[in-house]
Hints:
The complex is a heterodimer of chains A (192) and B (791).
Chain A: E1 2-7, H1 21-26, E2 34-37, H2 44-53, E3 57-59, E4 73-78, E5 81-86, H3 97-107, E6 111-114, E7 121-125, E8 128-132, E9 150-157, E10 160-169, E11 172-183, E12 186-191
Parallel strand pairs in A: 1-2, 2-3, 5-6, 6-8
Antiparallel strand pairs in A: 1-9, 4-5, 7-8, 9-10, 10-11, 11-12
Chain B: H1 2-33, H2 37-49, H3 58-80, H4 82-85, H5 89-95, H6 102-119, H7 124-134, H8 141-155, H9 172-193, H10 203-226, H11 232-249, H12 253-266, H13 269-274, H14 276-282, H15 292-309, H16 314-319, H17 322-336, H18 342-359, H19 364-380, H20 387-403, H21 407-412, H22 416-421, H23 425-441, H24 449-458, H25 460-463, H26 476-490, H27 498-512, H28 520-539, H29 554-566, H30 574-590, H31 594-610, H32 615-630, H33 637-652, H34 657-667, H35 682-707, H36 714-729, H37 736-751, H38 759-778, H39 780-785
Helix pairs in contact in B: 1-2, 1-3, 2-3, 2-6, 3-6, 5-6, 6-7, 6-8, 7-9, 8-9, 8-10, 9-10, 9-11, 10-12, 12-15, 14-17, 15-18, 17-18, 18-19, 18-20, 20-23, 23-26, 24-27, 26-28, 27-28, 28-29, 28-30, 29-30, 30-31, 30-32, 31-32, 32-33, 32-34, 33-34, 34-35, 34-36, 35-36, 36-37
Amino acid sequence: MVLVLAIGDLHVPYRAPDLPAKFKSMLVPGKIQHIICTGNLCIKEVHDYLKNLCPSLHITRGEYDEDARYPETKTLTIGQFKLGLCHGHQVVPWGDLDSLAMLQRQLDVDILVTGHTHQFKAYKHEAGVVINPGSATGAYSSITYDVNPSFVLMDIDGLRVVVYVYELIDGEVKVDKIDFKKTGTATSHSAH
Amino acid sequence: MMIADGIEDEEKWLAEGIAGIQHNAFYLHRAVDSNNLREALKYSAQLLSELRTSRLSPHKYYELYMRAFDELRRLEMFFKDEERHGCSVLDLYELVQHAGNVLPRLYLLCTVGSVYIKSKEAPAKDVLKDLVEMCRSVQHPIRGLFLRSYLAQISRDKLPDIGSEYEGDGDTVMDAVDFVLQNFTEMNKLWVRMQHQGPIRVKEKLDKERSELRDLVGKNLHVLSQIEGVDLEIYKDTVLPRVLEQVVNCKDELAQHYLMDCIIQVFPDEYHLQTLETLLGAFPQLQPAVDIKTVLSQLMDRLSNYAASSAEVLPEFLQVEAFAKLSNAIGKVIEAQVEMPVVGAISLYVSLLTFALRVHSDRLDYVDQVLGACVKKLSGSPKLEDNKATKQVVALLTAPLEKYNDIDTALTLSNYPHVMDHLDAGTNKIMAMVLIQSIMKYNTCVSTAEKVDVLFELIKGLIKDIDGTLADELDEEDFKEEQNSVARLVHMLYNDDPEEMLQIICTVRKHIMAGGPKRLPFTVPPLVFSALKLVRRLQGLDGEVAGEEVPATPRKIFQLLNQIIEALSNVPSPELALRLYLQCAEAANDCDLEPVAYEFFTQAFVLYEEEVADSKAQVTSIHLIIGTLQRMNAFGVENRDTLTHKATGYSAKLLKKPDQCRAVYACSHLFWVDDQDGIKDGERVLLCLKRSLRIANAAQQMANVTRGTGGPVTLFVEILNKYLYFFEKGNPQVTSAAIQDLIELIKTEMQSDTATPDPASDAFFACTLRYIEFQKQKGGAMGEKYDSVRI
């Protein structure tokens, strides 16, 4: 059982002052094995905060990130899964599922984690699973109206990954989960 | 050398003294056991003579004294038992006065006095009066203090208090009070006189020795507080005035400090409250060297705790005008003690402020008053350089923040900014950070333009360069931290009412514009997004109301935004400005303001043309432009064409061929929008795809020429995927034949002699083929489409 936090588009401090207090109290060091971050933190303070949560931190570059050295894309293997990471502003049209599918094929990964739209998504298509953890601070987006703060926690266990999405709606944290199973080369899913 | 000798000598003398006592005690016990009064008196007098020594320090004298004390207790028991020695207490009282030396005589007299009072043959007050006066004969400080201390000890339970068995007629309580007060007064005089006694000593040593004895003096005050009959009246009319008289008149700083402290500790808080004026009146009369602020702070702390103990006592505070009195007293002290350093004065104000916050938290005028007094003091002094004083000022400013978690309250204190003005630049900034942190911590929202104005004035040390300091001098990390704090702060400024919100935005703008090129990249973005959020709020609402003052409208806000972002040109920060212009363009598009959106795009393109020189930055920027443009639906044909033409043009002109290729095929999406009313220009799409294919081919050839091997086929596979995309969307210009050709092309390139094996592009191609197969297997319309594609 490997816990992976997928988080991004915090836009601190240019669009949001900080993570919501309720999220902060949930995210405690020592519980998570990996963090994959879609980008747009934007400042070093946020980087340090995430690094303190978990030293295995993977970040890709968002267009507002202070640190220009983050890569455009990143791939890593966790357990039986190959994961790909990309902020998403590079993929036009923004948020377009088929264009993202192309990126997924290009990176040849089971799970593609991407952001930019500030809207949570988790769906399965031919090439695998695409996950958008949304914006952890609920930051303003030109693409999505009424953004709720959200992040994703993936529990990777053998050939199965359970995706938990945490969303802050009207001051309360709501959790939902989706199951994906990897069978041979493709993945199948069941939603709850 | 001499000191070591001295200590050794003292030990010797003490040992001698103890030996003397023990020697005489032996015979004393024998005499007592055989009921021999005469012998007992003789040996007890000899024993007590050891206490006549002048050679011991107080600490050592005390040891000797305790030995004698123990013996006197046994002696007293013997005295009490008249049957054993056959002498009446009256006679005994007479008899002991025959002792040769005065000190032993008086110790014995006190001992008999104790028995005398117990016998009730005379009123307690008479005996006590006699004793306290007789003790005058011993004027040596240490000897006298211990003697009187003995008197105090044995008389403690025999005072003619109300309800005690020794209660007398007439004004019995006053008799008790008089006795204790007199003993106290004499003891204090002796104590003060200690410093003039004996050989010249080092002051610290002397003070230390004196300190060791202070409790002997202070005990008397404790006794006074325990007298049942002493009520508020008596305390107010007699006890306090007389104690204070002695305190002031003795003119000794050690005594004054200790005794004032004692008074405050020992007597109940309600008494202090009711005698506040008298008590406070003593302070200015004390010696300049007395650390008044500690004592005053103690007093204020006790009163604060008293106030906190129950709500019922609060009216009392108001009734006695406690705050006003304390405030006046502090003012007088500061005035009187000209030599007092600034830090002393400020810490007094800190204590007073703490008092006000705890006791009268609803009285903001009190809080402001204290701040005002502080300003006055600071104005009269040179600029603060003393670290400690600065810390006190910061404490003064932080206290209201912590008490009232709401920054609004601090903002209404008119003197608050004036106090801050007296801080040096560095501390001013620290204080500003404290203010911001307070807002962030308590999640407070500053909700009017007026308050925002006051707030930004308070934190102006962070907002702009204040005379003298240059932003360059500052450590870069610290500077970033400061500016990021200001950025965060902007998000805490909010009002539901759009008009007020617009005013807030204008106010913030006014302040940050003075920040200079180093600060703008931090402060402009949050303001821009704050304004964009306001635009979104207004989107649903209707625009102008004729005749009234023009309300906040998206149009007005966009004008403002234009000006705000333009300020970045002075930094210069072209990439950031470009991004912000694109954000505004999208927002303007959503408001259906075509010319405004077009203007923003123009600005973005101008920046791209003239300022974005770095090739990597160009790639990102052009993709942002394409991505934003792709989402625009407010543009008419002409405007749209101009912009897409520019976008594709710049895409093709990127430095590296692969970048060109990708940007150009990204442009294909400009001509196909999946919406119902979206543009669907199949030809232009194909033109883009073909163009990107040409570029990919050129790149391949270039690689062959320059490196001798072919480049990776990734670009071709990407383009293939794009073909598939539009094929599936139903672009008639994209045919299955074209797809077939592309597949063949890729295969050929991969198998060619000059091909560079690349697992990544191999995998990519394999995934793509797999996808096509998947689509074929779907059957239905999609399966049919793909039917003619062979892989």
